Amino acid sequence: MKIAIITDQHFGARKNSKLFHDYFLKFYNDIFFPTLEREGITTVVDMGDTFDNRTGINFGALAWAKNNYYDRLEQMGVNIHTIVGNHTAFYKNTNEINAVDLLLREYKNVKVYSETTEVKLDNLDVLFIPWINQENEKKTLDSISKTKCKCAMGHLEFQGFRVNSQVVMEHGLDSKLFDKFDRVYSGHYHTRSNNGTVFYLGNPYEMFWNDLKDNRGFHIFDTETMEHSPINNPYRMFYNIYYEDTSYQLFDTTEYSNKIVKVIVRKKSDTKQFEKFIDKLYASGIADLKIVENFQIQENEDFEAFESENTLSILNRYIQEAEIDLDKSIIQKVINEVYQEACELV
After folding, report:
1. Measured distance CA(116)–CA(28) in Å, rounded
2. Which of 232, 253, 281 is the last residue of a domain?
3. Which terminus, N or C, of the chain has the lesser number of Cβ atoms within 10 Å?
4. What strand order describes the sheet that includes 43-46?
């Protein structure tokens, strides 16, 4: 049997942004739902962080999620297995109170897992593992040691895997604790990475600048072979445009409507021509535009920022190269969290 695995959907993200919800909806309407129908898929595993804000929900975001996602899956006869993630657990030290359980009780086709549970998907026994915290860590590790399941799916924080394209997590669980499984699939980190046994499948869409050009989407999982295949999301939100006296007449701006754009100026010989280029971009209906000129972020002779890097990449590389007697991974984690919070305010 084929099932769909999706994770880290973050409904209500970016302060319940209509721009981002419209972008999300294009993925669901054009890619996700048609694939389920075409493949005859009637089971979806949601590996966590379904909603973005663990302490509250915007009513508009909730209505959007129900009208455009949950109602549609209910009408299609699709069953949803939803694993609690850190963004859907209200408290940081327990999963007992969580958004998906409280908000989705009206849906008979939605099953929520706040504790480690063995679930049969077709003929395959799978161990579902929600967010591990202070309260459930011992019980979760005991369940892992006792289970005979060959496959696990959850919302896990392993060390040594990429949080995003710039940051590798140096804290968290040792993935060797899960060596008994043939396959481990996880949400939590938004970029795809694996070590041959543990697979982070990544979230469905770009949400921040550090997601630029990173493959996103969902996966189809075969319960007989335990193999998975990606269904990529072709739609992007973030674009870098490199300006080098580029002719505004010949430049096609149609793909930038309702997108977030950064123009990086490499060469500008004629200011009026450049202004016409920018005017054309605005006329295309872009959502947000940033212009980067004189790209020289260089603190000293030993460090140089490159125009191909985004802000988070520069910060993390600077920390990594700095000669400091502190745990750099902790500093990078704090910087990453602050950066994400700053993006939410934009």
Report:
1. 29
2. 232
3. C
4. 110-113, 79-83, 43-46, 2-6, 217-222, 228-232
pLDDT digits (tens, 9 = 90+) for 272-282: 999 999 999 99
Q: How far apart are CA 67 and CA 71, in angstroms?
A: 6
Q: What is the dihedral of CA 8, 68, 88, 231, to 10 degrees?
A: -20
| Cα separation, 236 vs 216, whole angstroms | 9
Q: If you average pLDDT over residues 113-142, what whole number do you get?
A: 97
State the pTM of this model.
0.86
Place of tokens 């979760």: 140
The pLDDT mean for the chain works out to: 92
Q: What angle do CA 263, 266, 271 make, to 5 degrees?
A: 80
Q: Kindly report the CATH number assigned to the domain that includes residue 128.
A: 3.60.21.10
Strand, helix or coil at 82? strand
pLDDT digits (tens, 9 = 90+) for 217-227: 999 999 999 99
Distance between CA atoms of residues 209 and 212, nearest Å? 6
Q: Is residue 210 located within the same domain as residue 227?
A: yes
- Conformation bin of residue 213: beta by default, left when phi > 0, alpha when psi is -120 to 50: left
Kindly tell me if the per-residue pLDDT of 7 is higher than 80: yes
DSSP-based helix, strand, coil % in the chain, nearest 5: 30, 25, 45
Residue type at 5? I
The sign one gets for the Cα dihedral 132, 133, 139, 142 is positive
Domain match, 77 and 97 both: yes
pLDDT digits (tens, 9 = 90+) for 250-296: 999 999 999 999 999 999 999 999 999 999 999 999 999 999 986 55
